[in-house]
């Protein structure tokens, strides 16, 4: 867990859940409240990690070996944490990240059937054990979410059963640790979702972690 004075907040969820919008709204809210906010995303966040992103998301690499895919996501995460996230937390910033370790657990661990514990362990090793203080899961039925996608990347192009497994995984992960997770129904109006999120994030800054 982040033990530094900053705070690490991750957004997770299936395709088309509106993560990017909510991530932006939260970042704006926290900036207005006087925090230094670092907005970032995975896979990516540094030049090397963005290069890995181009490989893992490109439909050119359809059929990429599942273990190789898991290692690439973990490698990009390790670089992202070392160069961007940890330094930001150490200087007291709030990091708001679009996807993090639980995406690997859900998409590679459950979706590809590689095993949740193994994939989680891999990312913990890659990041020297950095976990968010709070993870916000935007929950959406994949049948609805995928309809919002216009240009599917390699993962988005997976069959519906894959996305159903991913959704169930996020709910299971979040349900096991309610203190560190907030699940929000992504079908609610944008403003209501944002209000739930800011309320919960507010608690993060009030109570000792
Ligand atoms: P992105 O374009 O960032 O989409 P989204 O707006 O859905 O976040 O694509 C990221 C894709 O990569 C998404 O399909 C989820 C997948 N992914 C993994 O499979 N494992 C991971 O560890 C991460 C971070 C993402």
Task: Describe the protein's architecture and organization.
The protein has helices at 19-32, 47-57, 66-90, 101-111, 116-126, 142-145, 160-175, 190-206, and strands at residues 7-13, 37-41, 94-98, 134-139, 181-185. It is of the alpha/beta class and 209 residues long. It has one domain: P-loop containing nucleotide triphosphate hydrolases (Rossmann fold, 3-Layer(aba) Sandwich). Strands 2-3-1-4-5 form a five-stranded parallel beta sheet, with helices on both faces. Bound molecules: thymidine-5'-diphosphate. Thymidine-5'-diphosphate binds at residues 15, 19-20, 41-43, 57, 73, 98-99, 103-104, 107-108, 153, 155-156. Thymidine-5'-diphosphate binds next to α1 and α4.
Feature tags:
five-stranded parallel sheet; 209 residues; binds thymidine-5'-diphosphate; 8 helices
């Amino acid at each position: 867990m982040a033990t530094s004075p900053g705070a690490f907040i991750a957004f997770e969820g299936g395709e088309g859940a509106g993560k990017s919008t909510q991530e932006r709204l939260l970042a704006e809210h926290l900036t207005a409240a006087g925090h230094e906010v670092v907005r970032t995303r995975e896979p990516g966040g540094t030049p090397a990690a963005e290069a890995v992103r181009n490989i893992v998301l490109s439909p050119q690499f359809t059929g990429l070996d599942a273990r190789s895919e898991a290692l690439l996501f973990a490698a990009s995460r390790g670089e992202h944490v070392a160069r961007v996230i940890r330094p930001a937390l150490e200087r007291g910033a709030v990091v708001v990240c679009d996807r993090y370790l639980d995406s690997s657990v859900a998409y590679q661990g459950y979706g590809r059937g590689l095993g949740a514990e193994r994939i989680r362990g891999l990312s913990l090793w890659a990041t020297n054990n950095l976990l968010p203080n709070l993870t916000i899961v935007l929950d959406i039925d994949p049948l609805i979410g995928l309809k919002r996608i216009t240009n599917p990347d390699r993962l988005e192009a997976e069959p519906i059963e894959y996305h159903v497994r991913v959704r169930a995984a996020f709910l299971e992960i979040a349900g096991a640790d309610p203190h560190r997770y907030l699940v929000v129904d992504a079908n609610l109006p944008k403003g209501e979702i944002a209000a739930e999120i800011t309320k919960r994030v507010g608690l993060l800054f009030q109570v000792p972690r």
